[in-house]
Structures
1.
Amino acid sequence: MVAKYERIAQELRSKIDNGELPPGSQLPVEQELRVTYRVSLPVVRQALDLLAAEGLVDRKHGRGTYVRHPRQRVRRTPERYQWEKDRVRLPEQQRQRTGATERDTGLTMADLDFKAEFDTVAANDDLATAFSLPIGAKLLRRIYRTQSHVEHSPLSLITSYLVYDIVAENSALLDARNEPWPGGTQHQLYTIGIELDRIVDRIITRPPTIEETEALDLSSGVPIFDLRKISIDTDGRVVEISDAILPGDRTEFVYTTKLTRW
Amino acid sequence: MVAKYERIAQELRSKIDNGELPPGSQLPVEQELRVTYRVSLPVVRQALDLLAAEGLVDRKHGRGTYVRHPRQRVRRTPERYQWEKDRVRLPEQQRQRTGATERDTGLTMADLDFKAEFDTVAANDDLATAFSLPIGAKLLRRIYRTQSHVEHSPLSLITSYLVYDIVAENSALLDARNEPWPGGTQHQLYTIGIELDRIVDRIITRPPTIEETEALDLSSGVPIFDLRKISIDTDGRVVEISDAILPGDRTEFVYTTKLTRW
DNA sequence: GAGTGGTCTAGACCACTGT
DNA sequence: CAGTGGTCTAGACCACTCC
């Protein structure tokens, strides 16, 4: 026995697949579907909610239900890390020109709404393990919100952790008003004599929390990427951990693995 | 004005967060919540459905609603590619010992339910572009389902594409009955004189389709990873494209980027 | 103001799970 | 068989969007 709402969803799904309902087009309104399929309103709504959870349609209050456009994904590759490192030792004027976010998005600083907040926190179990520090160790936490006023651009929520005692050596690094810092974190670390040896990316996916949904303006059903970036210096020390929340429908990761020749 | 179902969800959410409702514990049944919050049943259900979509609880028909356990994630790293390549030129007996899946999961072939189906398809726009071939080019499509009878292990759905005219040189490669092939795809390619130079991983995330939900036994709200692996040989030719669907709650990717020294 | 989706009520009956 | 979640009805009223 297939449920009615499943059957309705199935029929709409195939109309979307075969192009009868192309991206951007409006689905029949709830009342109309109620009549066509001879069901009560909640059943129609259940079918549409299901399609929304699958990412096929967008429900817009007061306007209608629309077939979702496939999103253009912004590609993220680890080449950015080497690019950042190469910029560190350039003169400030050149470093200032553009940051990594602008490089990724193609937007200029004027289009971006940049916010940074700093505070200190005690390392929890998770962070302490990652840093190889005792639980409770003092960390500088930096929270970045990059928003854009122009549409269709990727946003992100980034939380970065640094070991407080290490970065306190340069007090300018403790003040959020110095952000955005020309040359980014790698240059900040450079000011206290730290050179990065490698960066480890760990990628997971999950449904967003309510806050993430709002901050990233996610449609219902869209999952998020949670990227943890671990920066390790030339002494093998973990010097920064950065957690980025990225919209799952606007992001793709590309990593190339070179194999040794026979 | 906060909706009632939102308020109920919020209250249950905090009880889960603060440990009052630990992982594995059962939530109050719908009827009980209906009384406690003085709302109708659909409202309670809406709240619980929301928590399920967020991945916080599992709804089990006929049994109750339970706080979900955080899943142990299986780590996927690109080191497996080099490992596979190194195995290619070992004697068959050693290659036979274990495959990549077993290496990843720690399970032996006896625990795994392995299925392979081969057919040929015409390259669509997407595949033709990736292979740098004309649309309609003949491809060998290989579909693998790896399931496990023991619990808590990762499953995957893999679709692999090879250029038909290239692999037809060794007719053994066209027959699904030769799977699982000791040494995997890299060894199969080796039999026709192909050596891989590099592998490009492209990772996206999205909600699962109905079929994927069933095949991977996903709880509601769990997104999936879609990993496209592009294998490029020493002549710079794309020789294999493999699309893997992986459960989002049981998978993590780890990639290390080595930076050049100053 | 008209059209649309969002929330909610107060029930009824069915399907699955475990004893 | 009892307990639980799954589906469905037939309404009512509210909130948002756009003209």
2.
Amino acid sequence: MPKRVDHDERRRQIADALIRTAATRGLHAAGMREVAAEAGVSLRLVQYYFGTKEELLLAAMQQLAVQFGARATARFREAAGSAGPAGPRDVIAAILAEALPADEDRRTFSIVNTAYLALSLTDPALAIAPLVKNSGTVNDVVAAQLRTAQAAGDTPPHLDPDLEALGLMSMSAGLAISVLVGQSAIEQAQAVIDYHLRRLFPAEAVSR
Amino acid sequence: MPKRVDHDERRRQIADALIRTAATRGLHAAGMREVAAEAGVSLRLVQYYFGTKEELLLAAMQQLAVQFGARATARFREAAGSAGPAGPRDVIAAILAEALPADEDRRTFSIVNTAYLALSLTDPALAIAPLVKNSGTVNDVVAAQLRTAQAAGDTPPHLDPDLEALGLMSMSAGLAISVLVGQSAIEQAQAVIDYHLRRLFPAEAVSR
DNA sequence: TTCTTTATGATACGAACGTATCATCAACGA
DNA sequence: TCGTTGATGATACGTTCGTATCATAAAGAA
């Protein structure tokens, strides 16, 4: 076999170029030619790894979800530090903070994620199922963490974990958009998040 | 003067056709030809009333905001009924309920509004300013109503009106998207809204 | 009637897009 | 060395889009 090349790595590079382009010029404006130029490869190669644009869009969407999960995990692992495993509050706080456009990378994620969301609402080719599944999984994780916290006595037992999880994640998504359009500052968004975290975990102090 | 025709009314009809088309096939896919067909007029007439597509997009965006305001106003006027003027809770509940895709009309609004939001993030031609201004105005109204309720003793004084208003509106927007993608049911979204309304107005009972 | 406005029809142009099709070159394992 | 695979280049096809340009018909106030 000649010329060993990591196909998955190449696909990731090209998908990253799409995400970068979509963050600045829009998802619909990110054409095959522009993605190729952003990735530093030829148009022919983009066609080589992704036969169709739809295939490229789907791959980039999935990659976006993977990146988010990895970053959130890394964040609450770091938050826990050497103090044993990460507690429910650390996990939830990490997920919520990761969804806010605090820096350039997360801003890119929020923009492209919003673009995919809007596109999925009307474009049947872009399956809405995986997007919902990813978001639903995060939702379930938050709800499970709340139940754990309730069992430990850190969260008031009268709260509905599923409803609170849905409310938290929805608020986080809404706050991200609010910050993106410049309607509110990132500090305000984080303040709202912190306020509701204090409401859900009244016994513990606010970290950071 | 020959042939009296209400220009504003015609523009409204065409803009409505754009909104209807954008709700089903997407905002970027809503071309001049398709809008003309949806409105039942010729392509030439669309060009006649809106010289540019950008002009049409801006007009439809503004119309979307006007429709939302009118519907929210009508809703809390009806909620108040003959029992004098509408209270702060009625106003806030009406705004939040109006933002949820409970029926076909409101679903259309949510879809197209989300599409505009995503498009504004990357398209400089579509001024983000009016969109932020509209959303910011609603935010201020909610905050003002909260302050009024605090003065009347219906809302706990330790709450920050601005932060609560931002959180409420953001959560409402996030819930709308959650319902649109089918992640959560409209009843769940309304339950989350009701829960937070009870938190903000603990003395009053839940209406409807 | 006459003139201006409203509206339609039939195209046409240039640009951009996704996609496809040639040939060609470099690299590396067998 | 040889053959397979990765990668590039140039280019072309068909479609769709926004926009522009003709001419023309209907309708109502002056």
